[in-house]
UniProtKB/TrEMBL annotation:
Region called Disordered, residue ranges: 170-195
Species annotation: Phytohabitans aurantiacus
Name used for this protein in its record: Deoxyribodipyrimidine photo-lyase
Cofactor(s) this protein requires: FAD
Keyword line: Chromophore, FAD, Flavoprotein
Domain Photolyase/cryptochrome alpha/beta: 1-127
SUPFAM superfamilies reported in the protein's UniProt record: Cryptochrome/photolyase FAD-binding domain (SSF48173), Cryptochrome/photolyase, N-terminal domain (SSF52425)
Keyword Disulfide bond part of the UniProt annotation: no
Record-stated family: Belongs to the DNA photolyase family.
Length: 397
């Protein structure tokens, strides 16, 4: 038997249910990644990170006797073409929630059915599958606290074994990875499962102090795993299991990630349409003020530091994200979608569920139960950057 595993944003070999199942059930497995022109160019930082992830995944597969086949074009057409060329009986893929991913999955299903190829969809994107826990009488949780309770009570799947050897059919053209794209930010993290695992090991030595220090801007005491979770270099389940403290503050943040994924599944317009109507719809239009916010020259030190960190690193501390987003929407009264778009261009961890969910939360149009709250950026700085170290690092005067 032969199976194709179509990789998307699950760029790892460990705890990869689709890959593990294909290796268990088929003699020959074709790991495939299709460079999709529709997705390229949205964020040079993410394009570069993706390239590093693919190079690393290719190495990991080669060490196991296989390769990562690279194709370019429409992922559905390329998958079917490859499956038919080698006479594959099955295609395996990890389930995903964005509108784009679900459309791709529906099209893939239709084409597989037409060619009598079995399509199997596997978990792994989140810890608890989006839609697996629902409130009585609803299709998703709108408020985090009850979701968190249900999530802790849900049965988590078991991690799957990493395939030791993977056999490719012979005589295939592996395809080449194009030259690495340039990216935009000078100080970005490097992509790939290998790097992700090094960072996770390092993080496990510090995670005990997360609760205490996660908001202290100068300490920079969060995991920096978000981009690796975004591209699936780590399965979120394996991160939660490695930390082994389900009730702790860190795993609670992983639950926020799951939370927004189940919101985005139920409300596919999360990145463009107010989730909660009637709080605020009349945003100001002011391109010059917007540009100053984007450049980090508003004159508010903490806001400017956050915005400059974003451009320098393709990442921003969560406390700073909250402050800059609150400042854009509640002080400058500019549309949250402008902020979302800017973040989406620069953030390596930028994804539909977390970016949109958090932007709507701060704008008051989302899942916050206190939509009219507003931060004072000077007080935030006194509290979370009392010595001004973070500000001096990114926006020195
Ligand atoms: P840690 O504090 O170490 O947390 C561990 C993991 O939990 C993160 O890697 C992330 O996967 C998850 N997580 C933490 N906080 C949140 C949260 N509030 N919502 C959802 N998941 C969370 N996160 C993204 O991954 N992608 C985005 O596009 C994104 N956009 C954001 C936009 C705004 C306006 C705000 C306020 C927050 C946004 N976040 C986003 C959430 C959060 O800021 C980042 O996940 C976090 O800063 C990443 O750093 P870390 O890995 O060190 O996080």
């Amino acid at each position: 038997k032969t199976a194709v595993v179509l990789f998307t944003r699950d760029l790892r070999v460990r705890d990869h249910p689709a890959l593990a199942a294909a290796c268990a059930n088929a003699e020959r497995v074709l790991p495939l990644y299709v460079l999709d022109p529709e997705l390229a160019g949205r964020s040079p930082n993410r394009d570069r990170f993706l390239h590093q992830c693919l190079a690393d995944l290719r190495d990991a597969l080669r060490k196991r006797g296989a390769d990562l086949l690279i194709r370019r074009g429409d992922p559905v057409a390329e998958t079917i073409r490859l499956a038919r060329d080698v006479g594959a009986e099955g295609v395996a893929i990890s389930g995903d929630i964005s509108r784009y991913a679900r459309r791709r999955e529906r099209r893939l299903r239709a084409e597989c059915d037409r060619h009598r190829i079995a399509l199997r969809i596997f978990p792994g994107l989140t810890i608890v599958d989006p839609g697996a826990v629902t409130p009585a009488g609803g299709d998703h949780y709108k408020v985090f606290t009850p979701y968190h309770r249900a999530w802790l009570g849900a049965k988590w799947r078991d991690e799957v074994a990493t395939p030791r050897r993977i056999t490719l059919p012979s005589g295939l053209d592996a395809g080449h990875l194009p030259a690495p794209p340039a990216g935009e930010s000078p100080d970005t993290a490097a992509g790939g499962e290998g790097e992700a695992r090094r960072r996770l090991r390092d993080w496990l030595r510090r995670v005990d102090r997360y609760q205490e220090n996660h908001d202290a801007l100068a300490l920079d005491a969060t995991s920096h795993l978000s981009a690796y979770l975004r591209f699936g270099c780590l399965s979120p389940l394996s991160v939660a299991n490695a930390v082994d403290d389900p009730d702790g503050a860190f795993v609670r943040q992983l639950c926020w990630r799951d939370f927004y994924h189940q919101v985005a599944l139920a409300f596919p317009d999360l990145s463009t349409v107010a989730y909660r109507r009637g709080v605020r719809e009349d945003w100001r239009y002011d391109p010059e003020t917007l540009a100053r916010w984007q450049e980090g020259s508003t004159g508010v030190p903490l806001v400017d530091a956050g915005m400059r960190q974003l451009r320098q690193e393709g990442w921003m501390h969560n406390r700073a994200r909250l402050v800059v987003a609150d400042y854009l929407t509640k002080h400058l009264e500019l549309d949250w979608r402008e902020g979302l778009r800017w973040f989406y261009r620069w953030l390596i961890d930028g994804d539909v569920a977390n970016n949109s969910g958090n932007w709507q939360w701060t704008a008051g149009t989302g899942n916050d139960t206190r939509p009219y709250r507003r931060f004072n950026p000077l007080r935030q700085a006194e509290r979370y950057d009392p010595e001004g170290e973070y500000v001096n690092r990114y926006a020195p005067r």
